[in-house]
Amino acid sequence: MIKSILTVVFGILLLLAFIALIVWSIQVSKEKMANKRSRRTTAVKKKYEEALEGDTEADMGYWYNKEDMEDGDAITRLRCEHHFNKLEECINDLVVEMYDCGLVRTEELYMIAYGIEALTPDSPVFHITGISSDDDDAPVTSLPPVSTDAQRKIYERWTSYVNALLQLVEIRTSEDNKKAIIDGLMTYGRKNLLTLLYSPE
Hints:
Blueprint: H1 2-53, E1 61-65, H2 74-79, E2 82-84, H3 87-100, H4 106-114, H5 124-128, H6 148-168, E3 169-172, H7 175-188, H8 193-196
Antiparallel strand pairs: 1-2, 1-3
Helix pairs in contact: 1-7, 3-7, 4-6
């Protein structure tokens, strides 16, 4: 009888140990994946910063809008090439291009942040932003807080704008520079909503 009880107890202990081992393995696996993602993010950020620090006055490359190259002679096409000697300069110009080409839908970002009702004149947000001001050209100086979930959705929408831009333009530079430029364009989408509502030009 005692032997049977001990066998059952021993079996239960083995089962508990096995479960604990599984839980421990899952936890270790999660920690390894988190560390790997962290190292990868740090490496990308470091590479981007090094590329920016390595900018010189020498011509680093150029970009052009593919649609601008469809018509016109060789001289006209040459004028459509936007040369740059700093990565930040290229990133800023491409962000401006996104707005100029209508790829950035500011009203879409606004609705993601505050909901479609925020666009109606009787909405409190509508009045806070100053959109209902008598002076239509008066710049908005502040916006209500944006929730964390809305910020995430705004960034996701921004990445779609960047992907649309990359289909529209051709960037002629080294692969490392191109990756740093794309990373910079994506990172721009993490700026506050007030910044994203206006072209940096």
